[in-house]
Specification:
Length: 160
């Protein structure tokens, strides 16, 4: 086996572990800490939107709550897109059919998403949501698809 492939695999595994630890850390936050972080991000994103800032307090909070939910789901999707990118990159270093690379990457990502939601059952004020597993898995799928497209472009470029 080429030394470069081994080094690449090690780097990808280290990056995956870092991302998994990061996700675990976010999931370990209790509901108050997690909610405060989400609200801080939401307020920061919307602070320069005049139409929101000029609303009455109740209306503004209602809008911010809705935006916060969207931001939380986008955070799930984004984190797991990165997981999909890293998993598909790692699995693509093995001599497997493309469909198997995709299915293995998707399966590992799905299992981690399930374990992440299960972990949240033991965190005060947090719950496990199957919809979050689906969003996370969709993110993994997107990451896998991104790597698939990149590899396809490289393959076609090399064929020329």
């Amino acid at each position: 086996m080429k030394k470069q492939i081994i080094i690449l695999r090690i780097i990808l595994i280290i990056l995956l572990v870092i991302v998994f630890i990061n996700i675990f850390g976010f999931s370990s936050q209790d509901s108050e800490e997690s909610g405060n972080l989400s609200r801080t991000i939401t307020v920061s994103i919307t602070k320069n939107i005049k139409e929101i800032q000029e609303l009455k307090s109740d209306e503004k909070n209602e809008i911010l709550d809705t935006i916060e939910k969207v931001i939380r789901k986008l955070a799930h999707f984004s984190e797991y897109t990165l997981v999909g990118i890293l998993l598909m990159s790692l699995i693509s270093t093995f001599n497997l059919k493309q469909i198997n690379r995709f299915l293995i990457s998707l399966g590992i990502g799905f299992l981690y998403a399930c374990s992440d939601e299960f972990h949240q059952l033991f965190v005060p004020g947090r719950t496990a949501k199957f919809t979050d597993v689906l969003i996370d898995t969709a993110g993994v799928c997107m990451g896998c698809f991104i790597i698939y497209l990149i590899l396809l472009v490289i393959k076609r470029y090399k064929a020329k």
